[in-house]
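Quick review question:
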């Protein structure tokens, strides 16, 4: 279990919903940097980018794989310092001759943490071109405990089971418009069953395989109420503020987590 530090009373989170350019890392970094400079006009604690934000959901891992601390990592480091905020997103990382859909959480100082996508989307052969992660992670930032997950992970509730070890469940995604009802339903379900703030950041637009994405980036409170719904807006950043006190009171009054079943995940 990750033990909490002194938690900041609130955490402001910027959700970046963007129409990614297909397999154009340089241009996507420029586009995101421009959006941030135009739309983040006051301090935030955390900036969240979609899954594979440099390329879109490509299986061309050998061409676009980067070293763990390569150009995109250095770019995230620059932005974290500019905005004095944590910044999260995934991109293709090559490590030990394997390729990972890796979520990197870059802090304003020298620290960073990462999570490798556990559940690979076999219907698009992601399991052929990428290696799966083996560890569920919880990151701490300003006393808030954050459990990061990626897209297809959303369908596997055991992997996200809250053992009273996190406050925010965070999904970044390339979730197709054809399954938008599933996306919205499961985000709400994960929030309720885990008594956790749950955030899902999805892309918009179409990719190089002519798959459409409708966004629907959401923030849901621990009772399942939708706090923020970006719907299908294009290239927009919306901010939500999460309050520690409200969550703590609810968990204390209605401690469902104490009666949860234990699971053993074999990796």
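Suggested answer, residue by residue:
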């Amino acid at each position: 279990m990750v033990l909490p530090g002194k938690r900041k009373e609130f955490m402001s989170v910027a959700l970046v919903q963007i129409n990614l350019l297909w397999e154009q890392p340089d241009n996507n970094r420029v586009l995101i940097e421009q959006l941030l400079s135009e739309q983040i006009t006051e301090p935030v604690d955390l900036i969240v980018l979609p899954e594979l934000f440099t390329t879109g959901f490509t299986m061309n891992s050998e061409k676009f794989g980067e070293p763990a601390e390569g150009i995109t990592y250095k770019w995230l480091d620059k932005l974290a310092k500019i905005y004095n905020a944590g910044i999260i997103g995934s991109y293709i990382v090559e490590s030990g001759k394997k390729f990972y859909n890796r979520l990197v959480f870059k802090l304003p100082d020298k620290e960073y943490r990462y999570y490798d996508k556990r559940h690979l989307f076999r219907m698009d052969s992601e399991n052929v071109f990428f290696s799966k992660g083996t560890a569920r992670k919880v990151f701490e930032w300003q006393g808030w405990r954050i459990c990061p997950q990626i897209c297809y992970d959303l369908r596997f509730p055991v992997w996200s089971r809250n053992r009273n070890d996190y406050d925010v469940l965070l999904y970044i995604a390339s979730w197709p418009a054809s399954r938008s009802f599933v996306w919205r339903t499961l985000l709400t379900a994960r929030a309720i069953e885990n008594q956790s703030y749950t955030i899902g950041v999805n892309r918009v637009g179409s990719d190089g395989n002519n798959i459409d994405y409708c966004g629907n980036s959401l923030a849901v409170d621990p009772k399942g109420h939708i706090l923020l719904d970006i719907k299908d807006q294009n290239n927009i950043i919306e901010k939500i503020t999460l309050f520690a006190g409200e969550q703590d009171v609810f968990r204390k009054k209605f401690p469902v987590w104490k009666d949860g079943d234990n699971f053993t995940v074999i990796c």
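Why it works: The chain has a mean pLDDT of 96. The chain has one domain: 11-259.
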